Give the backbone structure.
Amino acid sequence: MLDRIEAAYKEVESAIADSLAQVEDFRLKYLSKKGVLSSLMEEFRNVPAEQKRELGQKLNQLKIYVTERYNSLKDNVGNASNPELKSIDLTRSATPIATGSRHPISIVRNDIIRIFSDMGFSVAEGPEIEDDWHVFSSLNFAADHPARDMQDTFFIARNPVDVLLRTHTSSVQTRTMEKTEPPIRIVCPGRVYRNEAISARAHCFFHQIEGLYIDKNVSFADLKQVLLNFARQMFGPETKIRLRPSYFPFTEPSAEMDISCDICGGKGCAFCKETGWVEILGCGMVDPNVLKSCGIDPEIYSGYAFGLGIERITNLKYKVKDLRMFSENDVRFLAEFESAR
Ligand code: PHE
């Protein structure tokens, strides 16, 4: 009996029908009172009890299969004889489905991470909702420093400690130094928040990457070389850098780095305000007070840190003029970056 069931499967599988008459033949052959299924059912009655379970199951499956097959043969013939459906070209390729593309900020963030990881930096991350200690106090901000002011910082709660949206990714520096023994060599990408009026040039949130290197005998020359290497890989081998003295509470000495304007090649244009230079990051040697706050002995270790805005680098690389484009999710804008990779 098993053989007959198997044979019926094969036959049904290869059955074809080009006309309604042939579909009817199929029905008569397999599904009618005198058909194959009925005769198998009859035979089943005489099967010994111990085989009933297995064969009964098989027979049921065959019945389901034959019925499905019958329905699909019927549908096919029906469609083929329907003039409306006949005109459908089944060989035509399907309508293309729009695929997503990587967000420009992600593209640039990944590029930056790749450049630094090639130089031995690993990625560290931290929370966007932070406390005062990790964003300000541990980083040597005086109690009355204006950056703590409501104008810049979104506070979430003020008691018992200030809880706020981080204004920079330097908070991840602190978190990493607190729990890791030097040497430390990390980049920390992430979103940051500042209470700014939204315009083409400013937004209340943006993205930064912070870099930190702590070890014995780290010098400003190391910092400069790493940044030069980064600038050349990011903007091309001809790129020049310059460091201008600056001030950050957590670095001493501090500097801001400019690169030769990628848009006019340093000749002077509207983007670089005719100076030939554009500022891309802040940096400096980690202030000994910060090392001490995080439990690292400044007599033994020194280090540098730098922080850059990913939007700014993206603006430069892709010449995006309005910062708001990055968060509006206009697919026409986003799709332009599909081919950028
Ligand atoms: N945290 C600084 C900022 O947000 C950037 C910075 C990082 C400067 C590290 C120096 C060293 O502006």
In short: The first strand starts at residue 122 and ends at 123.
